[in-house]
Amino acid sequence: MPLPNTLFNSAFQHQRLNWLLISVIAIMVYLATFAMTIEAALSLLTITWDQSVENHMTVEIPALGDETSMPQPERIKQTLAVLHALPDIQSTAIVPDQETAKLLKPWISDPELAKSLPLPTLIDIEIKPGSFSSAQSIEERLKTVVSDASVDDHASWLSDLLHLIRDLTFLAAFMLFLSGAILFISINLICRAVMATEKDTIELLHTIGATDNDIARHFQHHARRLSWPGALFGFALATLTLGLLSFALKYLPAASNIPAIQWFGLALLTMMVPLVAVIGANLSARFSVLKLLHNMP
Amino acid sequence: MLLTLNHIGLRYNQNRAVLQNISFSLAPGSFHFLTGPSGAGKSSLLRIIYLAEKPSEGNINLFGHDIAKMARHELPALRRQIGVIFQDFRLIPHLSALENAALPLRLAGAREDYIQRHTSELLDWVGLGDRLHALPSSLSGGEQQRAAIARAIVNKPKLLLADEPTGNVDEESAMRLTHLFNELNKMGTAIVLATHQQDLIQRLNKPSLWLKEGRLIAPFPPSAKAA
Ligand SMILES: Nc1ncnc2c1ncn2[C@@H]1O[C@H](COP(=O)(O)OP(=O)(O)OP(=O)(O)O)[C@@H](O)[C@H]1O
Ligand SMILES: [Mg+2]
After folding, report:
1. Is A295 touching B (CB cutoff 8 A)?
2. Which of B72, B41, B55, B42 is nearest to B5 (CA)?
3. pLDDT at A192
4. How many domains are contained in chain A?
5. Distance between CA atoms of B31 and B224, rounded to whole angstroms?
6. How close B175 gets to chain A, by Cα (Å)?
7. A204 with B50: Cβ contact below 8 A
């Protein structure tokens, strides 16, 4: 049996340094689990959105044409005729009025009122993969028969959204980095405090022939011993919060596009956070102590 | 030579010199007192010898190794051949006398049965045979002293350094300790014993290193070299 690993127990208990360490790790793991989940979920969303939106455009035929023009059903018929004549179009589908009304729901909550409004007709078109038809060129063709038709390829709002997601992803990554940095700094400070109170014990250990590694190992032991409960507690709390949040997220259509297998991957990735925190605490203690010992004679 | 100091100087953080131009050698199995008034630098000199302090000037040759030329990771092996008795004992409060004394053996990776047997025999020899499992807080000052001595010699060091070992104990305990050190020295351990108690020095009749204001004032007695 090597040296008893209780040598620095009292110093870690002194002034509740052990509770400080447990709390810091719990908070960091809580934040990091959150950041990690956001990070992973966002990348999944970007992938699925990219795939589902890429080949689709939406044709909008406003309900109120000028009085001289033809009635709405005729306008729709003519539009479809032009669309079907285009070589690059795979399929078309008229969005039912109820669906269109639903899109208004966030702005107009009364369904009766929404129904009474003159809704535009939306036609979802799917472009053949690999074709280069732009929304603009299709719109020009449509305008020859229906002058106020417009085509939206989602590019602008999608790129806005993707920007937002990229910013959020960056923010989450930055949060992960910060959690790591704070973890290291806290452990470094705690090791300093313990080494200062146990200066004599450390000199004694050196005197009886302990290597810097022997001494660092004691601090690593304490870092592991205290970071486990902290990491598990922080992780459990984060999972609980995320569970509640995902209740709300479930009703996001985009989230339901993510296949179950990828949710599983996400969960696995998130479970790495407490593990990485414990390993990180261990390594931080080792690095800090070796560095501090090196400045001693 | 076991230990040679050449023109050792020491100053703590750019302050005035605590030690100046100290040179002497110790032969294997020798016994020296290190004496001088309070603040003369006795503890500082011992710290330099057990490699807890780097001298600002000069060099040390310990067990045939030039310390300045050694890498940090090579020092623990040298330190294991030195036993140190601290003035404040430095026993670990939550470990028994036996466990405290066993620390150097555990560090060296000795076998458990050897550790138990050797350490309890040694504690018996210093007169703590019936207090093996007592915590330091339940030991008297003299008993703590002896547990600290047991720890210092459990590894059979070539050189034993003791800083004021008789400073805090009564006359009778001081006598017993002196007897212990004499026995150890007869078994071949070189000893440097820092003290300012002149009666102790006279009683044992061993050579002394005299420090005053950081300088070695008494010339090294020729008789000591032969010791
Ligand atoms: N860590 C330190 N930092 C700064 N100065 C120190 C330090 N340790 C000792 N000194 C100074 O060095 C001088 C020598 O101290 P040292 O403890 O070596 O003397 P000593 O001979 O052992 O005294 P005593 O008999 O009182 O134990 C003193 O003036 C002391 O104030
Ligand atoms: Mg002293």
Report:
1. no
2. B55
3. 92
4. 2
5. 8
6. 26
7. no
- Nearest CA to B91 among B50, B130, B44, B123? B123
Residues A78 and A177 in one domain: no
Based on the domain organization, do A239 and A274 belong to the same domain? yes
Determine whether the shortest distance from the Cβ of B41 to ligand 1 is under 6 A: yes
Nearest Cβ partner of B50 from A205, A207, A294? A207
With a CB-CB cutoff of 8 Å, which residues 166-225 of chain B face chain A?
Answer: none
Contacts of B80 in chain A (CB under 8 A): 208-209
**In the 8-state DSSP scheme, what is residue B92?**
-
What residues contact residue B123 under an 8 Å CB cut-off, 6+ apart?
A: B97, B98, B101, B129, B131, B132, B146, B147, B150
Tell how strand A56-61 and strand A121-127 pair up.
Answer: antiparallel
Higher pLDDT, A221 or A52: A221
Which range (A145-154, A204-213, A236-245) has the least confidence? A145-154
Q: Are A213 and A243 members of one domain?
A: yes
Read off the pLDDT of residues A49-67 as tens digits, 9 standing for 90 and up.
665 666 788 888 887 655 5
**CATH number for the domain that contains residue B49:** 3.40.50.300
Query: What is the model's pTM?
Result: 0.76
**Mutation site, B63, B79, B82, B154, interface A, largest A CB count within 10 A:** B79
In short, whether B42's Cβ falls inside 6 Å of ligand 1 is: yes
Give the SS3 label for residue B178.
helix
> Which segments in chain B show pLDDT lower than 50?
221-227
Task: Tell whether A32 and A165 lie within a shared domain.
Answer: yes
- Of B11, B20, B22, B10, the C-alpha closest to B219 is B22
Q: Which residue has the higher pLDDT, A187 or A119?
A: A187
What pLDDT does residue A163 have?
77
Is the shortest distance between the CB of B43 and ligand 1 below 6 Å?
A: yes
A162 and A92 in one domain? Answer: no
Chain B residues near residue A4 by CB distance under 8 angstroms? 95, 99, 106
Domain that holds residue B54: 3-220
